[in-house]
Amino acid sequence: MSVELRVPSAGESIAEVEIAEWLKKEGDAITPNDDIVMLDSAKTTLPLASPITGILKQILKQQGEVALIGDVIAILEEGTPAGT
Predict the structure, then answer these.
(1) pTM value?
(2) What span, in angstroms and rounded, lies between the C-alpha atoms of 75 and 56?
(3) Which residues 6+ apart lie within 8 Å of 55 measured at CB?
(4) Which of 20, 22, 76, 80 has its CA 20 to 30 A from that of 6?
(5) Among 35, 29, 59, CA closest to 47
(6) 38 phi/psi in degrees, rounded to 5
(7) Beta strand pairing call for 54-59 and 29-30
(8) How far apart, in whole angstroms, are the C-alpha atoms of residue 78 and residue 83?
(9) What's the CA gap between 73 and 84, in Å, rounded?
(10) For residues 76 and 58, what is the distance between their CA atoms, to the nearest angstrom?
(11) Which residues have a Cβ under 8 Å from the Cβ of 83 and sit 6 or more positions away?
């Protein structure tokens, strides 16, 4: 099952973030609490962790792009990655 990775609320006055760095690449295995991406806002830099076990299927926003709170930035595929 596919799961959308969305930009979470980063504070009351923050409406957008910049994709600072992808810590995982497409096809990488992920487990809950694995940091997948770093997000920069006007006030802070925060990691966004995986909510599931599976793989990072598709990155929708590239490093340096701006995303609004609630935007889908990646698609995760739930399940046990092959070879684990």
Answers:
(1) 0.89
(2) 6
(3) 27, 28, 29, 30, 76, 77, 79, 81
(4) 80
(5) 35
(6) -105, 135
(7) antiparallel
(8) 15
(9) 26
(10) 7
(11) none
Contact 10, 41 (CB under 8 A): yes
Q: Are 73 and 19 in contact (CB under 8 A)?
A: yes
Q: Which two tokens stand for residue 73?
A: 């930035």
| 9 within 8 A of 67, measured Cβ to Cβ | no
Q: Which two tokens stand for residue 19?
A: 């994709």
Tokens of residue 69, six digits: 């709170």
DSSP state, residue 79 = S
Per-residue pLDDT of the chain (84 residues; tens, 9 = 90+): 999 999 998 777 888 999 999 999 999 999 999 999 999 988 889 999 999 999 999 999 999 999 999 999 999 999 876 655
The answer to whether 32 and 22 have CB atoms below 8 angstroms apart is: no
